[in-house]
């Protein structure tokens, strides 16, 4: 097992089987020492999501049987708006200079990096692992491509041997499920049992989240 610890950011609104499958695949691909789910608060680029206490509760239920998984709630308790660069600075202070760290993000997020605060400094504190579909053909803007040129890495072992500074692209198995679709289906009273961990589905029903009612079969 490598010493690499990776942080998987997202709203997880709600956590679903696609998130978990991708996380497990990344644990295997990089032989991660730990994969930490990093639930976000109100993103400066998104609208308000479900109350954080519910999202964290569902995350805990979803990962409770996987010892390689953990949760870091720091972004939920930081004064808003919260920025990823602040999180990475805190993590680097927490772990010190010798720990290899990575931030996992989707390709859509990577393409929007120039909109992020101090985005060019992200790799000063951690590697970036960018997840995409096998058939995804990303077109990088000039500014992003210029920044990427000195950071792109094709050897995953370097993510362990170096503590930060690299960007690695990995194609994972696609999953035809999204939190947006799940919320819409719940609101319509449709079955979502195939897309949610059973404990998460039960929690949603118990608390009537996303418009779910007792008649939903999720």
What attributes does this structure have?
7 strands; 16% strand; alpha/beta; 2 domains; seven-stranded parallel sheet; Rossmann fold; 218 residues
Q: Spans with pLDDT under 50 lasting ≥5 residues?
A: none
The number of E-state strands comes to: 7
What is the approximate shape?
Answer: globular
**Tally of distinct domains:** 2
Strand content: 15-25%
Strand order of the largest sheet: 3-2-1-4-5-7-6
Q: Helix- and strand-based class?
A: alpha/beta
Tell me the CATH topology of the largest domain.
Rossmann fold
Q: Please, what is the oligomeric state?
A: single chain
Which architecture name of the largest domain does CATH use?
3-Layer(aba) Sandwich
The level of helicity is 25-40%
Main sheet makeup: 7 strands, parallel
* Through-space gap between termini: 36 Å
Given this structure, which CATH class of the largest domain is correct? Alpha Beta
CATH H-level homologous superfamily name of the largest domain: HUPs
């Amino acid at each position: 097992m490598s010493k690499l610890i990776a942080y998987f950011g997202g709203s997880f609104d709600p956590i679903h089987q696609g998130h978990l499958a991708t996380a497990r695949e990344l644990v295997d691909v990089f032989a991660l020492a730990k994969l930490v789910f990093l639930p976000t608060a109100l993103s400066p680029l998104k609208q308000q999501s479900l109350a954080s206490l519910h999202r964290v509760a569902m995350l805990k239920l979803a990962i409770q049987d996987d010892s390689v998984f953990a949760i870091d709630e720091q972004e939920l308790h930081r004064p808003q708006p919260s920025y990823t660069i602040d999180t990475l600075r805190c993590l680097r202070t927490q772990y010190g200079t010798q720990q290899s760290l990575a931030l996992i993000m989707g390709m859509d997020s990577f393409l929007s990096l120039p909109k992020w605060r101090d985005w060019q400094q992200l790799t000063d504190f951690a590697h970036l692992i960018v997840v995409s579909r096998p058939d995804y053909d990303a077109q990088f803007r000039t500014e992003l491509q210029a920044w990427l040129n000195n950071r792109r890495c094709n050897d995953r072992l370097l993510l362990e041997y170096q503590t930060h500074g690299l960007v690695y692209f990995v194609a994972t198995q696609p999953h035809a499920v999204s939190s947006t679709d799940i919320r819409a289906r719940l609101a319509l009273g449709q079955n979502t049992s195939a897309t949610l961990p059973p404990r998460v589905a039960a929690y949603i029903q118990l608390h009537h989240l996303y418009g779910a009612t007792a008649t939903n079969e999720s």
